[in-house]
Amino acid sequence: MDLEFDGVRVERDGRVVLDIAALRLRGQRTTAILGPNGSGKTTLLRLIAGLERPRTGAIRVAGAPLQPRPPLAYVFQERVFLRQSVRENLELGLRLRRVDDAQRRVRITEATELLGVAHLLDRRADRLSGGEARRVSLARALCLRAPLVLLDEPLEGLDERTYSRLLDELPRLLAAFDATTLLVTHSRHEALRLAQDLVVLVDGRVLAAGDKRDVATNPRAEAVAEVLGYAVLAAGSRRVAVPPGALKPGRGSVEFSMVVEEVLDLVERREIVGRVGDARVRIGLPPDCEVPQRGSVVVVHADRVCDLV
Amino acid sequence: MGELFAADPAAGVITLRTLLVSGAATGLAVLLGVPAGYAIARNRFPGRTLLLGFINTGMGMPPVVVGLVVWLMLVRSGPLGALDLIYSRRAMVLAQFLIATPIVVGFTTASFQALPPRLPDLLAVLGAGRVRTLWLLARETKLGLLVAIMAAFGAVVSEVGASMIVGGNLERSTRVLTTAIVTETSRGQVERALALGMVLLALAFLVNLTLTVIQQRSRA
After folding, report:
1. Is B217 part of the contact surface with chain A (CB cutoff 8 Å)?
2. Residue A209 has pLDDT above 90, yes or no
3. Residues in CB range of A146: below 8 A, 6 or more apart
């Protein structure tokens, strides 16, 4: 089920929120929509879900117009439940889609067991903890068995333990969806972990789209590099993007001068935070490395950089 | 109270009439006010704040003023005089409906606004149509809606000005408990007026108790 955007433009209070000349998202894959806050990621999902309409342009799902709304599952960023039991919340979508009793039971059992929330079925959904609510939201989406799944920052606001556990489980879940999945996130790590394709959205415009390897390893524009977590630095007269974690202390192939502003003691390791030109960077120190003083200037290097156009 | 009903069968008829007139007005106000409250809570449109200001003002509208306006509309020489509704129970229902509706709309808007903002979106993507969505959301905000019904019924069952003006307090057709109390007091029948007052209080209490039981059950 491919998704195509053709001249889609959304305006709110006279401001352009989304402006997509042309974009094609491949079906049966997970595509991560990456971008900073306010870049139009959620609006993109809401358009596909038919919750908002573009001012101009058209969206096609599998070559057909979007209206009426295609059968889809949507995991909202916020917790959204009826003040009823988890079971009733899960049943609602299935009832509305006229799934019979026996099938409802099977699907709810499967989805809740897969997500480890079967024991919560009789609990009030609006009284669940953050992690439980996330799992139940995913279970609700899963049991719909929709061909199109929209996930809006499904791991936002979780504690570290629940976050890493769900991040480990999500690839298996996405495989279980066997659907065209769109994942909105502002985390490069989540996007690379969960998706096959990436779309980088900045100020409502698509700056890069395609296979995640192509997009993530070759950010040609500064804004794309920043969204992907690259440090954008000046190397002589060139502007280059340094991949996350690639800056290291000492001399190397491409060198930069860094003014140390802070030394962080993170128990297992130390990091220095400072400035290279205008850019703020953070570098891990090897255990045997001498710890620089605040205010000192040190040489750092990167073995691999991308030239920006 | 028992003695009152035994001595005067008309008291029972007046009580029943009060319940029917105020119940009908409240019911109609709920039918119109709940969807209207939902629409105002859910949508942003020019003049929304002004409209909410009018509704909030309407929640405290003096019934006698409403009665006067309805009388001017329904009186034979008025724009709706041809309908021949003046001094009828239907005119009283209309006046009480106008008193109850802002109360229902105001409370309903607040109740719907207190729901998670994404809930209507969730129901839409799950496949609920507009009517089903409204029904599910109304169930969700049952506590608030019951408060709206109680407040609206309380306001109309206890008002006297509008009923007196548009109903005319006709003994066999439009006299309700409040207008009967005024009549008995003016005749110097204070004991009878007090007894009717007790009936009115009991009626209001019974209706509100029923709604409160439903409300508290839904909280469990």
Report:
1. no
2. yes
3. A71, A72, A73, A177, A179
Query: Which chain B positions have a beta carbon within 8 Å of A182's beta carbon?
Result: none
Domain coordinates of chain A in residue numbers?
3-217, 231-307
**Across the interface, do B122 and A96 touch by the CB < 8 Å criterion?**
no
DSSP single-letter state for residue A154:
T
Check if B116 contacts A (Cβ < 8 Å).
yes
CATH number of this structure's domain A3-217: 3.40.50.300
- Name B185's Cβ contacts closer than 8 Å, sequence gap at least 6: B193
Contact B118 A76 (CB under 8 A): yes
The CB-side HSE value for A43 (13 A sphere, CA atoms) comes to 23
Question: What ipTM was predicted for this assembly?
Answer: 0.82
**Given an 8 Å threshold on Cβ–Cβ distance, is B125 in contact with A51?**
yes
Find which of A76, A128, A142 to mutate to test the B interface (most B CBs within 10 Å of its CB).
A76
Nearest Cα residue in chain A from B127: A96
Any CB–CB contact under 8 A between B114 and chain A? no
Going by C-alpha positions, the residue among A63, A66, A22 that lies closest to residue A47 is A66
CATH 3.40.190.10 fits A231-307, yes or no: no
What is the Cα gyration radius of chain A? 22
Question: Could you list the pLDDT tens digit for every one of the 220 residues in chain B?
Answer: 666 666 677 889 999 999 999 999 999 999 999 999 999 998 889 999 999 999 999 998 999 999 999 999 999 999 999 999 999 999 999 999 999 999 999 999 999 999 988 999 999 999 998 899 999 999 999 888 999 999 999 999 999 999 999 999 999 999 999 999 999 999 999 999 999 999 999 999 998 898 888 878 765 5
